[in-house]
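Hey,

Quick one before I head out. I ran the complex with FE2/S2 (inorganic) cluster overnight. Inputs first:
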Amino acid sequence: MPKVTFMPLNKTVEAEEGLTLLEISEEHHIGLEHACGGVCACSTCHVIVKDNTDDNLEEMDDDEIDTMDKLVANQTLHSRLGCQARVVGDVTVELVNWPPREL
Ligand code: FES
């Protein structure tokens, strides 16, 4: 099973291949923000992929690209939306909106 590391928590969990980063976060109580509920409409789940592990996420689809372009002002070459990015291998991501507002 892929290992997913969430920064800045430095917490690594094992995850079923094909789940989104948000689904994995919810399963392990990580606290990835998701104001729209994970329907690709808010960008609060913005993460930055670290350590050149980008290829271990499925490629972005058009919806994710559109939302990123419209809503993410601080987008980087390694930016992804956690509610859309599906894990296919070991990956490290930094949560941009950390700590989550509800904590
Ligand atoms: S949770 Fe809103 S875009 Fe991902």
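The helical segments are 21-27, 62-71.

Talk tomorrow,
K.
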